[in-house]
Amino acid sequence: MKRVVITGAGTINALGPDVPSTLEAMREGRCGIGRLEIRDLDRLAVQIGAQVKGYDEAAHFSRQQLALCDRFTQFALIAARQAMAQSGLVVEGELETRMGVVLGTSGGGLTTTDDNYRAVYEEGKTRVHPFVVPRLMNNAATAHVSMEFGLQGPSFTVSTACASSNHAMGQAFHMVRSGMAPAMLTGGSEAMLCFGGIKAWEGLRVMSREACRPFSATRDGMVQGEGAAVFVFEEYEQARARGAEILAEVAGFAMTSDADDIVVPSADGAARAMTGAYGRRADGGGGGRLHQRPRHRDRGE
């Protein structure tokens, strides 16, 4: 089995438009949660979320691209561009035909769905834009990322609720580890902070109207966010040979299913997943985990 390392990372989220600004916000203890800026906010009981504010889509995409890309796809493309730029990978030859994309999403193009339901049911329109289906599909972000970089290897989307991106990265890990692909773009993207998205979650009665307070006795629900994070997973020897900066090594992965309650997670299920990851290192040993490496050129240790 081959070793799998991370050579590129990108993100756009409520804390910042890239990895450095996000890490800086974390170090300073800044919170990305605030009052939402969306249509018909007064009709919602939940009015807070981790929204990407001040986002100018025209600064990143042409009008033609925007006609095809929902907000969640735009976020994925921005994060993927950052990850590829940091990795320094040149997509040509074998890499072009074997490198692929596996992304996770739960909501997909929900903003597009919300806008068009509103147009048909509330505004009484009889037609929708011909690109509605390509915009709202869960695999839209994956498709656009693969086309952006000319990646012709395995490309698909994983949708397993809150575990979508973790599962996507697990599939990418297995592909690189097995030798099926020399490198993969992987991660996830969400953009569910629209009227329909929030209203649907209100019905589940799991959303806080006040704040995110994990591990607190006064916690009264969760808070949704939006954004994307994408990584370049690469085979270690390839990365080492081209002198790439190695950010981390992915040494294990496992996943489980509780097969129980529809909304209440099982601590045993989480424990089994973690235990499984620790027992499945790429080199056959135990103790699998994400190994952080110093930020320098790999020494080949």
Plain-language structure description:
It is found in: Cell inner membrane. It comes from Wenxinia marina DSM 24838. Proposed to synthesize NOD factor fatty acyl chain. Involved in the synthesis of a highly unsaturated fatty acid moiety, which forms part of a lipo-oligosaccharide that is responsible for host specificity. Its main location: membrane. GO terms for molecular function: 3-oxoacyl-[acyl-carrier-protein] synthase activity. With about 300 residues, this protein is of the alpha+beta class. It has a single domain (about 5-105, about 140-290), classed as 3-Layer(aba) Sandwich (Peroxisomal Thiolase, Chain A, domain 1). It contains eleven helices and nine strands. The strands form two sheets. It has a seven-stranded mixed beta sheet, with helices on both faces. The longest helix has 17 residues, at about 70-85. Residues about 280-300 have low confidence and may be disordered.
Helical stretch count? 11
Instruction: Outline the low-pLDDT stretches.
Output: 281-301
Spatially, the strands of the biggest sheet line up as 5-4-6-7-1-8-9
CATH topology: Peroxisomal Thiolase, Chain A, domain 1
Secondary-structure class: alpha+beta
What distance separates the N and C termini? Answer: 17 Å
Radius of gyration, taken over Cα atoms and rounded to an integer in Å: 20 Å
Strand content: 15-25%
Overall morphology: globular
CATH architecture: 3-Layer(aba) Sandwich
Average pLDDT level: 92
Number of domains: 1
* Percent of residues in helices: 25-40%
Assign the CATH class.
Alpha Beta
Function: Proposed to synthesize NOD factor fatty acyl chain. Involved in the synthesis of a highly unsaturated fatty acid moiety, which forms part of a lipo-oligosaccharide that is responsible for host specificity.
GO molecular function: 3-oxoacyl-[acyl-carrier-protein] synthase activity
Keywords: Cell inner membrane, Cell membrane, Membrane, Nodulation, Transferase, Transmembrane, Transmembrane helix
GO cellular component, one term: plasma membrane
